[in-house]
Design a protein that fits this description.
mainly alpha, two-stranded antiparallel sheet, 30 helices, 62% helix
Length: 651
């Protein structure tokens, strides 16, 4: 297989070389800066051309001011009491400054790394622990991973340096050397290093940095196949199939070269070939386990042909070299090998028939040594390629059955409320009302009615996006007035209606709807996060069609944010109900709504005024983040038409 392995590596390398740059921005978490995309390498010519901000005559006066804001804000962040906030702000500043003063940006990244390291070490053990890693080694790494992900977009070598510091000097090389045969996939050290890589790679993937994400994940291939690595490849493939398939080819080459590769590896590798969107592994009892968690369900693009054909070559080699005599193979290994061969045989028959005869002979040999009950158990799970039934049953059947089995009315009411929540999550409004009608306890029924009303109004408001019928807008506004829901939900519905009215050209009506939304903010208590979100939605919506009104409401938004002790940048629309002594909480906004959604828009109207307002925040974190939003927007030099058309977070 050595020549085949060499072939896989060559093909994979060519795929990476030919893959188009796809570092387009996508929806991202609050830590992800919106900046122009650049390659990770900087040529000598570019370094010569890349002068400092003061020396660069190409920068406008506004850009010079914006870069000064970045460096000043990063310097201020060094004095934050909260080290995680300090690292976060400095990371955003360095990333935005990189294209204008790379030397200064590098220095800020280094300071961010120092703050992140101190923050993580002070934070104690992380919530999760990598399998096979001792608890003492599993410390918090969240802040450092965020820094590495930002640096990886700009400088791969610097990101690798930080990653080595995170895991210990030359950890990956040492771990491989410690393992038998020079292959380190079972080394706890290497498992930890690979897990860290994949966490950073996933963050890059979520930011839309597909090429950088693949480059960061690539060294984890040395560990061999894992469910997390396959999840990463599958999710990357939804965005950039060519880059993902190149990484998959590298993984095939690693498995081909590994003398200890198992049917477990082949089963995971088969996912993109025979069951996209469904991972199949073996549980501790060596029974097949099916999992869709962490996977998107896209997969409309067929697997790259070279990768598909290589899968059959590698899989056949691994499956046919497994020892199956009674002295060297346990019954569990027999079961795994039998299941894997049987599951893949139809695909081999279709795409690689040259291996079918050998595989069938091996299948028969394995079956001869297994008891009938185990064969029946495994056979029933051979053809599962999706978890959703082809003929779906009632999704609430489980709730109905649980209610019928309840032994008292209090328990039945509690289960009916749970059923209402599940029905609402699926927008099965009529089913939700049926469960509500059966609730006997008045307080539980009121809570269920509130839950339904709030979610239904939010759904109606969200569905307004892109409507061409003004009557849809008026119906949503009327529903917002008449429905018994919290004031924050009314504000959301009315601001969405105002936004769509402005989009259709009726600015007068949009202004009236914003006035109405503003009137409901008076019913929200000072110091409540919902008040911050409501005023933020109104300000951002006004910025799309009436900047005078936006400037008028911006100070009220800042004042509301200052009244919330832990406010930083993200706004939510939390809805809470009590059922007995149990509290149920949900964020009604489908996606996060950020401080930058406001300050980006205000900067497009007036950079200096937006910066002045940003600096009026009393608390250091929002003041710094708002200032960075202003500076980054000014440096991007986007025209007002490039601002997003809606103030609200999209579904």
């Amino acid at each position: 297989m050595q020549s085949s392995t060499r072939h896989f590596v060559i093909v994979a390398a060519s795929l990476f070389a030919c893959a188009p740059s796809t570092r387009a921005q996508s929806a991202r978490p609050s830590a992800a800066p919106r900046t122009a995309q650049t390659k990770n390498t900087t040529t000598p010519a570019r370094r010569t051309e890349q002068k400092t901000v003061k020396e660069n005559p190409r920068l406008s006066e506004q850009q010079r001011k914006a870069t000064a804001v970045l460096t000043e804000t990063a310097d201020d962040a060094r004095r934050f009491d909260n080290l995680e906030q300090s690292a976060h702000v400095q990371t955003l500043a360095a990333d935005a400054l990189w294209d204008f003063d790379e030397t200064a940006a590098r220095a800020i990244f280094q300071r961010a790394w120092t703050a992140a390291t101190q923050s993580d070490l002070a934070g104690g053990n992380s919530r999760g622990q990598t399998p096979g890693v001792a608890a003492a080694e599993s410390v918090n790494t969240d802040a450092r991973e965020t820094v590495i992900a930002a640096v990886a977009r700009r400088d791969r070598r610097l990101a690798e340096k930080f990653l080595r510091e995170l895991n210990g000097s030359n950890l990956e090389r040492e771990a491989v050397a410690e393992s038998k045969g020079g292959f380190g996939r079972r080394s706890p050290k290497l498992l930890r290093a690979a897990a860290q890589r994949l966490k950073v790679a996933r963050e890059l993937l979520e930011r839309g940095e597909y090429e950088a994400a693949a480059e960061m994940a690539a060294p984890a291939v040395a560990v061999g196949v894992s469910a997390e690595l396959m999840r990463f490849v599958l999710n990357l493939r939804d965005h950039d199939p060519r880059i993902a398939d190149a990484l998959y080819l590298r993984l095939l080459a690693a498995v081909s070269a590994d003398p200890e590769a198992t049917p477990d590896d082949v089963l995971l590798l088969s996912t993109p070939v025979i069951s996209p969107g469904l991972l199949v592994t073996f549980d501790p009892t060596r029974a097949p386990h099916f999992d869709v968690s962490g996977l998107s369900q896209g997969w409309e693009t067929p697997l790259y042909e070279a990768a598909r054909l290589a899968f059959y070559d590698v899989s056949a080699a691994v499956l046919l070299r497994q020892k199956i005599d009674n002295t060297t193979a346990t019954s569990d290994n027999r079961n795994a090998l039998y299941y894997t061969i049987t599951r893949l045989l139809p695909s081999f028959a279709h795409d690689a028939p040259r291996y079918v005869e050998q595989l069938r002979a091996r299948q028969a040999m394995l079956a001869a040594g297994m008891d009938a009950s185990r064969l029946e158990f495994l056979s029933a799970r051979i053809d599962i390629h999706r978890l959703e039934p082809l003929n779906p049953t009632d999704p609430l059947t489980g709730d109905v059955n649980a209610i019928s089995r309840a032994t008292n009315e209090t328990e039945r009411d509690r289960l009916r409320f749970q059923a209402v929540r599940r029905a609402v999550a699926r927008k099965l409004w009529s089913r939700a009302r049926e469960f509500i009608a059966a609730i006997g306890d008045d307080a539980t029924r009121r809570a269920a009615l509130s839950w339904l009303a709030a979610h239904q109004l939010m759904s109606v408001a969200e569905d307004l996006e892109g409507t061409d019928d003004p009557e849809d807008i008026e119906r949503a506004a009327t529903l917002a007035r008449r429905t018994d829901v919290p004031s924050g939900v009314r504000v959301f519905a009315l601001t969405r209606a105002a936004n769509e009215s402005a989009r259709l050209g009726n600015r007068a009506r949009a202004s009236e709807l914003l006035d109405e939304a503003l009137s409901f903010t008076g019913q929200l208590e000072q110091g409540a996060e919902t008040r911050v979100t409501a005023l933020g939605l109104i300000t951002a919506t006004a910025a799309t069609f009436d900047h005078v009104r936006a400037w008028e409401t911006l100070p009220a938004f800042i004042s509301a944010a200052d009244a919330v002790e832990d406010f930083e940048s993200e706004m939510s629309l939390d809805f809470i109900v009590l059922v007995g002594e149990e509290e149920f909480k949900t964020n009604l906004l489908r996606n996060s709504f950020q401080l930058e959604d406001i300050f980006e828009r205000m900067t497009l109207f007036d950079f200096s005024r937006a910066l002045t307002e940003a600096r009026t925040f009393k608390r250091p974190a929002p003041r710094a983040l708002a200032s960075l939003d202003v500076a980054r927007t000014a440096l991007q030099r986007r025209p007002p038409t490039a601002a997003r058309s809606s103030a609200q977070a999209r579904p």
